[in-house]
C-alpha cells in the first residue's frame, strides 16, 4: 500500500518528503529494517519505489487547500516493477525476501528448514525424492530385509513390554512407507502382535502421505454407520493408520514403539566457526551479485545456548581440536519428547542414521540425483542433511527422564547381523532366480557391508557401496523393560 501511495503524486503533492519517515515507522512496528539498512541484494518478492518528481524536489511544501482533488487511478493500477524479471525460483525469491527485510543473514538452520519443508516449495513437500529415480536411496528401498529386521526388533521389544493388547507404533519421516509395509508384511504371521498395533505416520509432506497410503494398501472404513465417521486401516494387518505432522500430535497413554530411520539427519542444524573473537555462528546471506553466500555473525545468537549445552557434554580436549561445530537444537528437543513419552508410557525408540558418537564438526551436505552438489546451489532442488550427533541424543534423553535407558550406538552391520539378517538372506536365496539372487546379494551388501562390494561383476558405476559401518543404531527404552535386542547392558 505504501508503494502505491508513493506513486500517486497528486495525492501526496507537496508532502513527498514525509514518505521515508512513514515507511521507517511502519518497518519498525513490523520488526523489519528500514530501506537504508537493507541488504543491497535484489528481491523479486518485494520492491519499494520511493522516488519523487525531480521537478518538485526543491519546492517548499504548500498547505493543502480546502478542496483536494485526488487521482485514485494509481491505487487501482499500480505501475510495473522497475527491476528486470528474475529467473529465481519462488523459494529463492522467498529466501532472499526474508534476508532482505530482516536486514541481515539467516541461520543455516532456518535456511535448511525453508529449503526442506517450506509448505509451498520445500524439497520434501511436493515430490517423491526417494529411489533410483529420485535423489537418493534409503535402506528400506535397498532391500525388503531391512524393514523385516526392524519388525523383528519391534516384536522383541513388544514381548519385553509384556505383549500389551494395544501399542502405538510410530514412524518419523516414513518416506514412501516402504519400511512400515515390509515390517507389517514380515510380521503378518504373528497376529497377536499385528492386531495390537495402532500405526502413526509422522509426515509433513502431503505428497508423501499419499504415497504412504498407497504403499500400506490402506482403505477407509465406515466405523459409525450414518454419522459418516471413517478410519483408515492397512490391508497388510488390519491395523488402523493415522497421519500427523509432529510427534506431539500422536495420542499418548499407550506403550509406544518409535522408529526414526534417517530422520534426525534432516533436522536443521546450526554451525559455529572458531574466530579470533571466539565461536561465531555461520549464516546465509545474499552477495552483491545476488547469489547466496556464507558469512560469520560477529554478535552472539540464540543458538549459542545449544552450543553451550553441547560444550557441557563434551570433553575439553575434543572441543579444542575443532575449528567448526554443528549443533542441532531440534534434535535435542525431539529427543526430550521421545524420552519423556517412553519414560511415562513405556516402550522404546530405535534411531538409525549416519553420524558419529561425538561432537560433529562440518558435515552439512547436499545431494541431487545421487551426487553431492553445492549447499547453496538452487535451494529446494537437492536434499540437505548432516551427520547425527549420537552422543548429544544420549545426553538429551538422559537429561529428559530418569525412567529411560540408552543403548548404543552400534553399527548398522552389527545391529542387523545380531537380529539375524544372515539367516534371512539365506532363506530368500533358496527360492529365487539367478537375477533375484544378484539383487538380494547386492541389497545385503549395501545394508551390512563396508565400502565397495568385492563380488560385484556388473557396471562400475553400479557397484554396491556398503552402509554397514557408516550408519549407527541407538535405542532409548523404558528402564523397566531391560536391554532391548540386540543391544546389551555392557554396550557403551
UniProtKB/TrEMBL annotation:
Broad EC category: transferase
Stretches with biased composition (Basic and acidic residues): 80-89
Catalysis performed (reactions): L-arginyl-[protein] + 2 S-adenosyl-L-methionine = N(omega),N(omega)'-dimethyl-L-arginyl-[protein] + 2 S-adenosyl-L-homocysteine + 2 H(+)
Recorded GO MF terms: protein-arginine omega-N symmetric methyltransferase activity
Spans through the membrane: none
Alphabetical UniProt keywords: Methyltransferase, Mitochondrion, Transferase, Transit peptide
Cellular location(s): Mitochondrion
Annotated SUPFAM superfamilies: S-adenosyl-L-methionine-dependent methyltransferases (SSF53335)
Described purpose of this protein according to its UniProt entry: Arginine methyltransferase involved in the assembly or stability of mitochondrial NADH:ubiquinone oxidoreductase complex (complex I). Acts by mediating symmetric dimethylation of 'Arg-118' of NDUFS2 after it assembles into the complex I, stabilizing the early intermediate complex.
Family (UniProt): Belongs to the NDUFAF7 family.
Name of the featured protein: Protein arginine methyltransferase NDUFAF7
Taxonomic path: Eukaryota, Viridiplantae, Streptophyta, Embryophyta, Tracheophyta
